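Next up, a chain.

===
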Amino acid sequence: MKNPFTLLLELLRGAIATRQRSATLAKLRAENPDCVIRSTDIHDTQLGKSDAILDRAILRQVSMGNFSYVACDSCLNNVEVGNFCSIGPHVQVGLAPHPTRDFVSIYPAFYSNKNPGCPIAFRENKTFDDAVPKTILANDIWIGANVIIPGGITIGTGAIVAAGAVVVKDVPPYAVVGGNPATIIRYRFSEGQINALLLSEWWNWPIEEIRQQVDDFSDIEKFQGYISVKYSKP
């Protein structure tokens, strides 16, 4: 059994951590009054306009665009999120790598002198870079529930990642992918329509223009007609 001093020390550390998380949450809410912030586990994160971070989501080193949300119990680590992104529940984005070639063991104590998953290390230096590389989630993407995306992946604008998928390589714009490993199921639109959407960069339009054209967002052909006129003007 733990002695009373150790238990007291753990309680004090827990109380301090809770207070720090509460202070961080209060600061984020004050700085982002138009956002919904329900998680208390947010570190080194920048929010955009009208974002939503829902219950028990974990964000570390995350840059959020505008009008994007992270659903309950998702974890993002070193991720850049664009505008109008929908990230479902229980999603994991930005996982640390392990050596898969040459190294006899993949346990971190053999290649790292400091890893939170290893109480002790067998060496005094690091021989493998296990830092989480940045993951890019572009604009207007939908990540379904229980998706896993390791660090260093780019999900292109307009893409959909089906629930439960394990993404192991970059996903092109407007592709629908699913499975383990994730493969392309289809594209959402024709090549010409995709090119028009990417050219428009509608996700960067002023919100007033989006409101004015909101009906066109329900019909790709009407939307394409609008942007053809918009960008053909001298």
User: Anything to note?
Assistant: The mean pLDDT is 90. Helices lie at 4-31, 191-200, 207-212, 220-232. The CA atoms of residues 25 and 213 lie 35 Å apart. The chain is about 25% helix and 20% strand.
